[in-house]
Amino acid sequence: MPEDLSTLIAPLLAPLISPVPTEWYLVLSAILFAIGSLGVLLRKNALTIFMSVELMLNAVNLSFVAFSRQFGQFDGQIFVFFVMAVAAAEVAIGLAIIVDIFRSRNSVDIDDVSWLKG
Amino acid sequence: MEFIIFALAAAVSVAAAIMMVLNRNAMYSALFLVLTFFCFAVFYVLLGAYFLAVVQVAVYAGAIMVLMLFVLMLLNVSHPEAADRRLAFLRPFAVIAGLILVVELAVAVSRGSAPAVAASPSTTSGSALATATVSRPVATPTPVYEPAGEATVGHTQLLASVLFTRYLFPFEVTSILLLGAILGAAVLARKRPELT
């Protein structure tokens, strides 16, 4: 009787037990990337835009790691390291620029930053 | 079990990301982003990238977000964005552009078909050797990444062996990049009386 039950339930539980397919991670990565890009387009606060860029970088990292598992290679994870290093450098420089803009304009609103406008 | 954890973390990460974008208070946005980063660490654990999960928490949720929160509090701009904006007419175009990107990503993901999982170590190491033959010890084959589960003891060690042999030059270039970032940040944050 338990065998019958298990054979009956097994197909239903199969997707719950087997590892999550790579495609799902890619879909999730695409969703998060799209949310991040919408944040960059919609927000006016330079700091929030910055955070959205970080979210986009992380979404790409997720697909790197997912492909790393898919192909059984380490290269994807190595690239994630480099992306993280570049993100750290970007945050340091970007926040310094934002602080500098705030000093002169007393605002971090990107609409206030129009020095390059002719 | 893995599926349930993935579903939970995916739901939390997407919800936190949406809240991060929609929230008008930058401070709450930062905290929601930290939550999203923790979800990413969960995904890395599920994918077997344990060291990356630790780095994700330590570097992203730790260092980078602390720096971001520090600047947020330093500038004290956590008050909500003003509703009326001079460039408000651009917002519908931003929404349209974002939706176009969403559609593009949906098409790309739905039409693409993932190739078969690398089954045997011999095929993967062979292709890797064919593409990249940089100064690597000949005796050591390309370390094959074991997906979660068994034989994960030397995972970080294998990762380091790839990073410090095949990717040694990019690694060194990254250190120069970080040095440049430190110098640039110091120069930018300095007081410049002649400009104001």
What this model shows, in words?
Chain A is mainly alpha-helical. Chain A has a single domain (22-112), classed as Helix Hairpins, CATH 1.10.287. Chain A is 80% helix and 0% strand. Chain A is built from 4 helices and no strands. In chain A, α3 packs antiparallel against α4. The longest helix of chain A has 31 residues, at 75-105. Chain A is elongated. The model of chain A has no long low-confidence stretch (mean pLDDT 84). Helix content of chain B is 67%, strand content 0%. Chain B contains 7 helices and no strands. In chain B, α1 runs antiparallel to α2 and α2 (26-46) packs antiparallel against α3. The longest helix of chain B has 26 residues, at 50-75. With 196 residues, chain B is mainly alpha-helical. In chain B, 23% of the residues are buried. Chain B has helices at residues 2-22, 26-46, 50-75, 91-111, 121-131, 155-163, 168-189. The chains are: A mainly alpha (118), B mainly alpha (196). At the A-B interface, α1, α2, α3 and α4 of A face α1, α2, α3, α4 and α5 of B.
Global mean pLDDT of chain B: 76
- Give a short account of the largest sheet of chain A: none
**Global structural class of chain B:** mainly alpha
Give the helix proportion of chain B (percent range).
55-70%
Give me the CATH architecture of chain A, please: Orthogonal Bundle
CATH superfamily of the domain at 1-78 in chain B: NADH-ubiquinone/plastoquinone oxidoreductase chain 6, subunit NuoJ
Beta content of chain B: under 5%
The largest chain-to-chain contact, stated as pair and per-chain residue counts, equals: A-B, 76 and 87 residues
- Which word captures the global form of chain A? elongated
- Give the ordered list of helices and strands of chain B: HHHHHHH
Query: Within the CATH hierarchy, at the fold level, what is the topology of the domain at 1-78 in chain B?
Result: Four Helix Bundle (Hemerythrin (Met), subunit A)
User: In angstroms, what separates the terminal alpha carbons of chain A?
Assistant: 81 Å
